[in-house]
Amino acid sequence: MKNPNVNRTASLPCPHCRPAAPSACSGLDGAAHVYSETAGMTQNALFERLWAGTAAMEEWTAAVSDGAITPIGDDIISVHTTYFCGNVTAIRSEAGLILIDTAKPETARRTLELVRTWDASPIHTVIYTHGHIDHTSGITVIDAEADATGAPRPRIVAHRNVQRRMERYEASHGYNSLAQGQQFNKPGYVYPIGQRRPDTIYDDRLSLTIGGVALELIHGRGETDDATFVWMPEARVLASGDFVIWMFPNAGNPRKVQRYAAEWAVALRTMARLEPAVLIPGHGPVIFGEARAAQVLGDGADALEHLVGETLRLMNQGATLDQILDAVKVPARFLQKPYLAAKYDDPEFLARGIYHFYAGWFDGNAAHLKPARTADVASELAQLAGGADKLAARAAQLSDDGRTRLAVHLAELAGAAAPEDAHIQAIRATVLKAAIDGETSLMAKAFLGVYLRDAERRSNG
Ligand SMILES: [Zn+2]
To answer: Ligand 1 (ion): which residues have CB within 5 A?
Structure first.
């Protein structure tokens, strides 16, 4: 027995394979093997439906919402609480537990409880895959547990830029709270800051051996500039962090700092070369089997390389951002993959991000270099049209005709020309509502929703 603190009885296999080991389970089929402590259910069938694209991720979130463990061999588990929180992976070692990520304030306590049903050893090391709060902020709960038991607080290991990110979140705290509140429709949201910072940092690669367990930490840029993926060579398990999220890569978020689509693809290629047998994504269920892991990594890289390649090709020919957004599309063969659906970020936002990465903020439209105030443009056009209500009426007509983008332009101009006109604001709200209904991504819906709520408020006033 490796460790006297191990509670082996709590590491239950699923009802399919009890009492045999999960690897012997006839129902396993290389699929994720989630056992929920509370519900006592297996998620094999659900994984297969997610993989086939016939189940939505909301169903998975519902299934794991009381907290669920995916056993990955004898000494590794992954803990899940909702799609919207990073998975937490726990690894046994002779020195104590190693955790990859920590969950977020709402889920950290339950996550740690589940880890403790599996192993009671002190937590020796925590690795942050990056500095987003759904991966780092559970450290507070982990430290509090260590303090209560008199154990030393774990060492935190992360990429050098995690520290810089945390400093940036403090400098832009008001903005970041607002942007996050808009993205997830939580007005008044306050972004948690002040997480404990890394004790050990690295730049490109870091090889660790902790209590006999070898870990390879590899840096790449993708969603963030501070990302780490963790390779466990003995078990051939890869914890990708948010390089894999069961959605189209989140590399174009409209209200966040620059992201790195091209380097994201490079990181996925590096991961694929490791040939993992198990892929633990940053969010969503664990992917078992070499072939499936390779497929997810390869498809993600292909889709990103397509977007980057097409955007650059047009940029190099002198295209403006306007032309690029119209021309660059991700082929349906990628978007149809259940793990690449554009339900969170939107590929069009990625094209913008790629443009911005190479070209800066100017979009190539002379009027946007030193623009007039929006309200001035709006009242000028309203006057030309014969009144803001004419602009609003045309917006409604365009919206009815399915020309949503143009409709939103005119509705916003009408609204800016007549901010206190309840009737015009009501039309604006209708146009925005139709635009939201036509979008698939959480981000497009969420950021349009900010203006829908504004229009609704004004139309009732
Ligand atoms: Zn995340």
So the answer is: 86, 134, 242, 282
